[in-house]
Amino acid sequence: VEEAQKIANELVSSAKNDIETIKSKIEASVEQEVAYLTKSFDDKTALQMKKLKKEVVEEVLNELLSGDKITLSQEELTSIVLKKVAQWQSQQQKDMLKLQCKVEITLA
Questions:
Q1: DSSP one-letter code for 67
Q2: What is the pLDDT of residue 96?
Q3: 3-state DSSP call for residue 69?
Q4: Using one digit for the tens of pLDDT, what is the confidence trace for 15-48?
Q5: pLDDT digit string (tens) for 65-100?
Q6: Do residues 67 and 95 make contact, with C-beta atoms less than 8 angstroms apart?
Q7: Quick count: other Cβ atoms within 10 Å of Cβ 64?
Q8: CA distance 97 to 106
Q9: 72: left (phi over 0), alpha (psi -120 to 50) or beta
Q10: How distant is the alpha carbon of residue 42 from its chain centre?
Q11: For residue 73, which phi and psi values (nearest 5 degrees)?
Q12: What does each C-alpha distance from 21 to 12, 27, 93, 106 come to in angstroms?
């Protein structure tokens, strides 16, 4: 009976060690995946920002060139472009918060 108890205790101890090892590996894997997703998101955001800047400038120039001769100061033109970019950034921040919530839920 004592020998069986000793073997059972060793099995339980071994199982606990295995659980901790597996848990550590999973945590490391999740952290690595989160880092990858964050970098990927940042890269996509930077790319989208470049595209957006180009689209905004093109849109503003098309509006200016298609209408009657409208004169805008550099300050007014800058304000128009900044407003367009701010609208896009606001949406990107909302998307980032959604992604962070999903990651937190996954890690919990």
A1: S
A2: 72
A3: coil
A4: 999 999 999 999 999 999 989 988 988 898 888 8
A5: 676 666 767 787 778 777 777 777 777 777 777 776
A6: no
A7: 14
A8: 14
A9: beta
A10: 6
A11: -80, 165
A12: 14, 10, 37, 20
Amino acid at 53: K
Residues listed for the chain: 108
d(CA 45, CA 87): 14
Burial of 18 (C-beta count, 10 Å sphere; 0-12/13-18/19+): exposed
All residues at 6 or more sequence positions from 49 whose CB lies less than 8 Å from its CB, including other chains = 85, 88
Give pTM, 2 decimals: 0.48
φ, ψ for residue 69, nearest 5 deg: -60, 95
Run of H or E residues at 4: helix 2-66
- Residues 95 and 38: beta-carbon distance below 8 Å: no
Radius of gyration of the chain (CA): 28
CB 80 within 8 A of CB 60: yes
